[in-house]
Amino acid sequence: MKSKKWGTMLLAGVLAVTGVFGLMGDQKAEAAASITTAVRKVSVSGRTYSVQTVTIPKGTKAALGLAQGQVGQTQSFASIIKNSNATAAINGAFFNSYGGPADPYGTLISKGQIVHTGYYGTSIGFKKDGTALMDSLRANIRGTVSSKPDKAGKSKTLGWYATFVNRTPEAGQNVVLMYNTARGSNVGFSGGIAVTVRKGKVVKKGANTNTTIPSDGYVLVYHGSEKDNVGRFEVGSTVEMEITYTDAAGKTIAWDDVVTAVGAGPRLVKDSKVSLDAKGEGFNDPKILTASGARSGIAIMPDGSVMLATVSGATMGQWAQVMQKLGAKQAMNLDGGASSALYANGRTLTSAGRQLSNTLVFGQWVAMQ
Q: Closest Cα to residue 292, out of 274, 317, 326, 328?
């Protein structure tokens, strides 16, 4: 009797587990079916372009896929996709791919946290409900530091700011850098003076020798002439931080609810019209200004869905016209050349020619928060 009872229970368990995995398989198939792919033919200035496109329904989860889960690393496109559980993916921000730290250049937001800052170009952002936004995003990081009360019970409060987030400074650069856990366990370099903040309190200050980043705080590194300003911090001081978002003109924009963002550019389409001013957005590289090359781009469509696209060779002006003809309401360029990569529903549609630093990933199982 005992043997029969356990056999019955085991069979029920197997059936239950099989049912769960069957359901998961159905859900994955349904999610994949909602994300569609197509090769679109678009004629611009007498030339026809074959454009790989992926359509992402409005409200689909969007997340930042970081190489090895950190800022400043590289990894194969396939590995980032696998680690992110993505149904669709495209390469993201420009990054240093020619030696030295593989730091990005654009602003990145992951799970609601600023993980890198950039001061040029255009950004696309996604709210928790999947709503997409596009603007010339600039993140401003400022705060206050209050000293411990003196014998009379008074404390002194001064301001502070950070120039960059999770970036390796150049030799002799006069900057203040902030590092959080998206950088990894350490800041990644030595030099300058480091201030370690945990739970709003300064717990350590001293020479930066690849300082450890706390899981419950961040590290500020004062580099170059900025070291003269580190005296306002002392162990035991209370530190507060505020992040505000503006556009390139300094106007406040409503991006506080954005949980995922990638900055690249330039802008290609605005309100369904070609809108291209690469130099005005801070680009000086001929690869962006005049040359033809492999391109990646992302668009917000009139119905709120998102379109990912790649093309094998186009100037930026041609790329803008292509995106408009594809029906984009808002569109921007992403990193291109050997970085251009596109994936959907288990297939690589455009293969990256090198390891990547960051991607945008989409689907039911990506982690937005």
A: 317
Please report which residue ranges of 235-335 form alpha helices under DSSP H: 286-289, 316-325
Q: Are 316 and 337 in contact (CB under 8 A)?
A: no
The Cα–Cα gap between 249 and 251 comes to 6
Which pair of structure tokens corresponds to residue 162?
């950070």
User: For 291, phi and psi rounded to 5 degrees?
Assistant: -75, 160
**Closest C-alpha to 72, from 192, 196, 188, 215:** 188
pLDDT 10s digits, 113-162: 999 999 999 999 999 999 999 999 999 999 999 999 888 888 999 999 99
Alpha-carbon distance of 345 to 54, in angstroms, equals: 10
Residue 53 and residue 311: Cα distance in Å, rounded? 9
- Measured distance CA(355)–CA(58) in Å, rounded: 29
Name the 3-class secondary structure at 165: strand
pLDDT at 210 over 80: yes
For tokens 């469509």, what's the residue?
301
Beta bridge partners of 269: 274, 331
Quickly count: other Cβ atoms within 10 Å of residue 243's Cβ: 17
Q: In angstroms, what CA-CA distances link 75 with 102, 192, 212, 251, 339?
A: 10, 29, 23, 36, 12
Beta bridge partners of 350: 342
According to DSSP, residue 211 is labeled P
3-state class (DSSP) for residue 130: coil
pTM value is 0.90
At residue 294, the 3 state secondary structure works out as strand
Check if the beta carbon of residue 196 is closer than 8 Å to that of residue 215: no
In this structure, what is the dihedral angle of CA atoms 113, 118, 124, 130, given to the nearest 10 degrees?
0
